[in-house]
């Protein structure tokens, strides 16, 4: 990936309610977050839009943005311009809801808090998904966990009843507690992480053992919103603490509207971040000049622009291809498939073909040829292959599809064969007989080489276990095991060991890998595997 020459720092500003783009729209600013280029010639620009009062400007439609290179406007269709969807943005939003129990909160008030959070989670005002993680805590002099970081809204809903049992306390250190809350975010999981704290407190009590300015330093890159209940007048100190949104209300009858307002601001900020993608027509020139300027302009009255330079020396034309953009199980023996042609302008018309009709059949959507349902035999587990053609644009692809469900499955290699479900990569593996027991073993792996096994499929179970043995140079040559890209490594002389890991129902990729560096060899330079098992209970 080649990075463009532009500041790539996340800048945070105060937020409030915004208006849709119109002829009466205020002057706005495009604030760059990150701009990069990737092969063959794709440019992605991540930026935020705010008005002249620092308010976020969400939901601007794609046609309102124009792209210029070296001062000349590009044709939107020719360069495949598009605003990417929320799930495509490289953003992670982490939000903490913190409820102050320092002044004593009655059961009746807690019930209102719980019911309000339940309603806003269920109607989608509080977003909880892989891009929007939520934590809920209560606090007084200490912090009590209600629901840890999760993307599962049901987990949050099931945890909210803990608020009824949370301890009351004395309000002695509000700023100190808020400073502690900032540590709950942990290390940044991505370069672009939006952190928000929603504080709910009563009576505007800001008693604390540390000064406000010290707390604000902890919250430099964190959005803070406050709902203050029962405060008769504006508290300037608390207003500074709730720097991104301050909601003083008289009583709990206004609580739902206040919390809704907070999350409206939170969502507006997220929706004011845009990711614009296009394909640059620039290439390395005969004179060797490959540095160009891209300008993104917001059209209409009150428009704005941002500029960056990029290097096109390694740019090549994009090559059209077909991708399967959606793939989910309809039910046990059916899978929904959706095809899409990338980098084409003509409307696609697809033709589908199953290569093994004895194993599976296809039902094509007669109104939309990009959609199909694959139905497969109940006794089949593994994969089959499809051929998908875009006859309008002259494209074709072969696509493997995982079929069947693994339940209570064990591979012990006693038949002397490597299972067909295993994908072998690198040098290879073989089944060997050691002391009357057949196991899977790596072939000879040389310096700076590796070998791997991948097992992909749909699984119904709660854990996977396997036996392994490693004989290698400790700290240099190692075995690695991954579940969906995350895992552990082991090196040295281990002897036989058994490990077990939790899994969830659904599609997974398990991978075992042995890799060797370029230094000396030691021991047998091998890995053995046996008794790979999925447990459903």
Question: How do you describe this structure in short?
Answer:
By secondary structure, the protein is mostly beta strands. Helix content is 12%, strand content 44%. The longest helix has 17 residues.
Can you tag this structure with a few keywords?
globular, 537 residues, Rossmann fold, 4 domains, mainly beta, 6-stranded mixed β-sheet, 12% helix
Assign an overall shape: globular
End-to-end Cα distance, whole Å, is 44 Å
CATH fold name of the largest domain: Rossmann fold
The total count of strands amounts to: 34
**What strand order characterises the main sheet?**
9-8-7-10-11-12
- Could you give a short account of the major beta sheet? 6 strands, mixed
Mean pLDDT: 85
Rounded Rg:
28 Å
Percent helix: 10-25%
- How does the helix and strand content classify structurally? mainly beta
Strand content: 35-45%
Q: What's the CATH architecture name of the largest domain?
A: 3-Layer(aba) Sandwich
Identify low-pLDDT runs.
Answer: 1-24
Descriptive overview:
- This protein has six helices and 34 strands.
- With 537 residues, it is mainly beta.
- The protein has four domains: 110 residues, no CATH class; 177 residues, 3-Layer(aba) Sandwich (Rossmann fold); 76 residues; 126 residues, Galactose-binding domain-like (Jelly Rolls, Sandwich), CATH 2.60.120.
- A six-stranded mixed beta sheet has the order 9-8-7-10-11-12. Strands 23, 25, 28, 30, 31 and 33 form a six-stranded mixed beta sheet that branches. Strands 24, 26, 27, 29, 32 and 34 form a six-stranded antiparallel beta sheet that branches.
- Strand 8 and strand 9 form a beta hairpin.
- Helix 1 packs parallel to helix 6 and helix 3 runs parallel beside helix 4.
- The longest helix is centred in the middle third of the chain and has 17 residues.
- It is globular, with a radius of gyration of 28 Å.
């Amino acid at each position: 990936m080649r990075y463009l020459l532009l500041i790539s720092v996340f800048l945070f500003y105060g937020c409030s309610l915004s208006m849709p783009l119109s002829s009466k729209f205020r002057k706005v600013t495009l604030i760059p977050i990150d701009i990069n280029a990737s092969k063959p010639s794709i440019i992605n620009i991540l930026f935020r839009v705010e008005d002249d009062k620092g308010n976020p400007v969400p939901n601007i439609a794609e046609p309102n943005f124009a792209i210029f290179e070296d001062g000349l406007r590009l044709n939107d269709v020719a360069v495949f311009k598009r605003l990417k969807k929320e799930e495509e943005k490289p953003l992670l939003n982490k939000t903490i809801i913190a409820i102050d129990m320092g002044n004593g909160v009655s059961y009746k008030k807690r019930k209102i808090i719980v019911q309000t959070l339940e309603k806003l989670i269920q109607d989608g005002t509080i977003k909880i998904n892989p891009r929007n993680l939520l934590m809920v805590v209560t606090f007084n002099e200490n912090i009590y966990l209600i629901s840890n970081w999760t993307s599962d809204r049901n987990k949050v809903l099931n945890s909210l009843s803990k608020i009824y049992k949370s301890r009351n306390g004395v309000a002695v250190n509000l700023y100190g507690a808020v400073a502690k809350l900032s540590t709950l975010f942990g290390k940044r999981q991505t370069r672009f992480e939006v952190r928000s704290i929603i504080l709910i407190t009563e009576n505007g009590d800001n008693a604390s053992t540390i000064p406000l300015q010290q707390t604000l330093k902890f919250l430099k890159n964190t959005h803070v919103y406050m709902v203050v209940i029962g405060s008769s007048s504006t508290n300037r100190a608390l207003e500074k603490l709730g720097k991104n949104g301050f909601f003083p209300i008289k009583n709990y009858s206004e609580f739902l509207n206040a919390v809704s307002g907070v999350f409206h601001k939170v969502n507006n900020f997220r929706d004011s971040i845009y990711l614009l993608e296009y394909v640059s027509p620039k290439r390395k020139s005969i004179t060797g000049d490959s540095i160009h300027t891209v300008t993104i302009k917001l059209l209409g009255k009150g428009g704005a622009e941002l500029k960056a330079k990029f290097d096109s020396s390694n740019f090549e034309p994009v090559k059209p291809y077909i991708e399967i953009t959606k793939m989910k199980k309809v039910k046990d023996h059916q899978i929904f498939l959706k095809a899409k042609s990338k980098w084409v302008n003509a409307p696609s018309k697809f033709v589908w073909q199953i290569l093994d009709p004895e194993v599976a059949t296809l039902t094509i959507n007669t109104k939309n040829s990009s959609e199909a349902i694959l139905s497969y035999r109940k006794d089949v587990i593994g994969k089959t292959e499809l051929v998908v053609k875009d006859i309008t644009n002259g494209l074709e692809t072969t696509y493997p599809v995982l079929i069947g469900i693994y339940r209570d499955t064990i591979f012990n290699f006693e038949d002397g064969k490597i299972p067909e479900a295993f994908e072998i990569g690198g040098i290879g593996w073989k089944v060997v007989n050691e002391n009357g027991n057949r196991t899977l073993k790596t072939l000879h792996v040389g310096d700076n080489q590796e070998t791997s096994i991948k097992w992909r499929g749909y699984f119904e179970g709660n854990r996977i276990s396997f036996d392994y043995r490693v004989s290698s140079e400790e700290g240099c040559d190692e075995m690695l095991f991954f579940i969906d890209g995350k895992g552990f490594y082991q090196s040295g002389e281990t002897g036989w060991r058994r490990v077990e890991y939790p899994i969830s129902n659904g599609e997974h990729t398990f991978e075992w890998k042995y890799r060797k560096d370029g230094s000396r060899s030691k021991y047998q330079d091998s890995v053995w595997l046996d008794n790979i098992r999925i447990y459903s209970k």
